[in-house]
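COMPLEX REQUEST
Ligand: iron/sulfur cluster
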Amino acid sequence: MSIVGVDQRETRSGKARLQRVPIPVQSPEQRVSNFLEVNLGYSSQMACEEAARCLQCRQPACVKACPVGVNIPGFLKATATGDFTGALSIIHQDNTLPAICGRVCPQEVQCESVCMLGRKGEPVAIGHLERFVADWEREHHSSQVGQSTSRSTSRKGKVAVVGSGPAGLTAAANLSGLGYEVSIFEALHTPGGVLAYGIPEFRLPKAILAYESRSILEMGVEIRTNTLIGRTLTVNDLFREGFQAVFLGTGAGLPQFLNIPGEDLNGVYTANEFLTRVNLMKAYLYPEVDTPLYLGEHVVVVGGGNTAMDAARTAIRLGSKVTIVYRRSREDLPARREEVLHAQEEGVEFQFLSAPVGISDDGQGWVSAVQCMKMAQGEKRDGGRNSVQPIPGSEYWLTAESIIVAIGQEPNPIIFQTTPELAVGPHGIIGVETGTFKTSKEGVFAAGDVISGGATVIEAMGGGKKAARAIDHYLQRKNS
Ligand code: FAD
Ligand code: SF4
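STATUS: Structure written out below.
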């Protein structure tokens, strides 16, 4: 396997310390024809060298900038001395899914954004190092050392967790560690939520998700898959089954649509459907597996988030030419910086300040082209992003046999439609009390995308962890 990006520097003194040790990656030419992971990970030597760059600040801003407060200087110090087991046990005190977070957290706007080294050079590669120590430990067959949430022997009561995405898994791990008997109810046949059905193999290998989620289930957490709460059972049924509290971590799996003419044609997919077909139903192996996926030569992906990048890079790997159409500017792209860079390297084309307004058909019910309009940037809104307006008369056509819509998701209504006591805000967001994660229904708590709309893995985990503590307080008070 040819590797690009390995640091060629001979010394790491003085100015060189301002630059991070680059992570080896599969070359773009190679990776567009496979679904293997793009980033190949540090060697032990690279990891020690990169971790040694940490300045060991007395009041580390990076810890505050991590939504679960990982002791970053602590784990970097252990990594720099080659004590990878010790490093992982420090991370595990706050983060139960480090191999996943090291791969998918948007570190450039979290922990790494405030690293002192970033002022004059490049911040410490915290994400790459978190991934390294978790991978090293897994590859060396060690047990899950130092899990802060290790199982308590006495059981305080029964708690139901609905959904097995990062919010549900983290809540379950923490509740189990606090001494509760926890059962997870998951609609799909496999745990992980977006980590399983959304994020592709080339960013997050399924084996890594399986390993880290298994380590939680092995703490004594029961999981009932293929169980849709709101259909198979209701929230009230869970209380009738003897659960004393219910945690909702059901995410935001309902895709939004463009609402433009032609959206019902064959060849228009939501990113959710497209990625689920590829990830969970292995459509990329057709005809060896019986899930077909017709894309054609030209694919247009609409949107600028991680979901759009994942859809575009998946379509490239399936052999199509891909154009991303995004209504705002490059600077506004919400996707992780690395994913945008990798998409560009792989040949994805970007059309910024452009939005689709109609889809034409080939006369047989299939997509043949998408009509777009150029957008003009207006004033900044409330110090945030610039407003955008269509430019009259700027319409143009892009040839496309398929269109993948990746413009956002909101919570599926099934839970609140069958649990009328739950207060729900705009776009199906379940309302919770700040800090306690209590919903308007007694004994029901919620966190993750279902209370925020599409956010990040680590924010969902942070919410799951805090909600678990709130459930513990609630049950201790109730049962005392
Ligand atoms: P989810 O991960 O959505 O999990 C919810 C789970 O609940 C699912 O398993 C679902 O099947 C189950 N469920 C739903 N309803 C029911 C029900 N009624 N009964 C039983 N089970 C139910 N974030 C990042 O930080 N970095 C990234 O690189 C990144 N990339 C992304 C790529 C894609 C394609 C997408 C879609 C999102 C991405 N995100 C990323 C966002 C991130 O994945 C989410 O913010 C995160 O997964 C939210 O976690 P959650 O546990 O709240 O919900
Ligand atoms: Fe950074 Fe995410 Fe790790 Fe926290 S969990 S230290 S934000 S990579």
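REMARKS: The pocket of iron/sulfur cluster (ligand 2) is lined by residues 66, 68, 70, 72, 95, 101-102, 105, 107, 110-111, 126-127, 130, 458 (CB under 6 Å). Residues 158-253+410-479 form a domain with the FAD/NAD(P)-binding domain fold (CATH 3.50.50.60).
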